[in-house]
Specification:
By secondary structure, this protein is α/β, with parallel strands linked by helices. The protein is built from 13 helices and 13 strands. It folds into two domains: 88 residues, Alpha-Beta Complex (Aspartate Aminotransferase, domain 1); 233 residues, Aspartate Aminotransferase, domain 2. β6, α8 and β7 form a beta-alpha-beta unit. α1 crosses α10 and α2 runs parallel beside α10. The structure holds pyridoxal-5'-phosphate.
Length: 335
């Protein structure tokens, strides 16, 4: 048996999803003529209580466009030191927006208004102008840790007081909503921008959507074109996103249950030093031996995973990890 626990991006479209893609009505979206793309953008915007949406090829692009929209060159943004926008987007904050980054040490990537407040620069020519805060929910490098809306509220209030924009990297926002029980529609009021990935736990092959005000999206559309992200008959891809929203949100709780089972099994193993708390579909654990050795042993049994540090391994559950595979992995953890 082969089990791929490297990432929730490895899923393949299901037959139902392929059917939806096949029958999508499409047009040239750069001309604003693809009704399926427009339907996806409107559907997600309504879902999150935002005015408008913009379909993009990747979550990196939606995040980078948001940063471009919410800053000017010489500005600074504040984010946690583990955050995807800082670590895994190739230095795009500096390259695309000419903005510097102030890093905080959150708790598994979760930051608070109290941590942010002292890092906002005063109006002095020595300092870059602080203009944006970026949160991530769930936090990838935090092992899928979640913000609740109650934790977000004081951050949004601080940003409003200080005239800062607030962006959410919601690559796995539906995993967070599944865990916290918060409602998507309550998110819009707190954020200037929200990026939602369709190609992670939702199982679509491609695509992310940036949500914001109509005015911001109008400018974001311009930035997307400049970044090379204007797509033509993209409705085939948007159809997969719509299908995913209709069919693959409810089932995320299954991924979370699978992750919890894997974590429990790992806790009993002599070669495992520590398992981080599991809230969603990511399981991070530390090994006594170098992670490289363990990954080789796992691969020998057909189990693919990645390391996120010299002694840290990440298991990710997703749409294509079935109950029999979880049982197989649990049985296979004895070396
Ligand atoms: C995957 C991911 C993204 C976007 O990645 P793309 O591969 O560019 O779609 C953004 N933020 C987080 C936290 C992610 O895990």
């Amino acid at each position: 048996m082969t089990v791929d626990l490297r990432s929730d991006t490895v899923t393949k479209p299901t037959p139902g999803m392929l059917e939806a893609m096949w029958s999508a009505k499409v047009g040239d979206d750069v001309f604003g003529e693809d009704e399926t793309v427009s339907a996806l953008e409107e559907k997600l915007a309504a879902l999150f209580g935002m005015e408008a949406g913009l379909f993009c090829p990747s979550g990196t692009m939606t995040n980078q466009i948001a940063i471009k929209c919410f800053t000017q060159p010489l500005d600074e943004l504040i984010t946690d030191q583990t955050s995807h926008v800082y670590r895994y987007e190739g230095g795009g904050i500096a390259f695309n927006s000419a903005v510097s980054t102030r890093l905080l040490n959150g708790n598994r990537g979760i930051i608070t208004a109290e941590m942010i407040a002292p890092e906002i620069n005063s109006n002095d020519v020595h300092y870059p102008h602080t203009s944006l805060v970026v949160l991530e929910n769930t936090v990838n490098k935090g092992g899928g840790s979640c913000y609740t809306l109650d934790q977000i509220k004081p951050i949004a209030e601080l940003c409003q007081q200080k005239g800062l924009k607030l962006h959410l990297d919601g690559a796995r926002i539906f995993n967070a909503l599944t865990h916290t029980g918060d409602r998507a529609v309550d998110y819009g009021q707190y954020f200037d921008g929200i990026s939602v990935c369709l190609s992670k736990g939702l199982g679509a092959p491609v695509g992310s959507v940036l949500l914001a005000s109509k005015e911001t999206i109008k400018y974001a559309r311009r930035v997307r074109k400049v970044f090379g992200g204007g797509m033509r008959q993209a409705g085939f891809l948007a159809a997969a996103g719509i299908y995913a929203l209709d069919h693959h949100v409810e089932r995320l709780k299954i991924d979370h249950a699978h992750a919890a089972l894997l974590a429990e099994a790992l806790k009993g193993k002599s070669w495992v030093a520590n398992v981080l708390p599991v809230e969603t579909n990511l399981v991070l654990f530390d090994t006594f031996e170098p992670a490289k050795n363990i990954l080789e042993k796992l691969l020998g049994k057909g189990i693919k995973a990645n390391s996120t540090g010299p002694n840290r391994i990440r298991f990710v559950t997703h749409l294509d990890v079935h109950p029999d595979m979880v049982e197989y992995v649990i049985r296979s953890l004895t070396f």
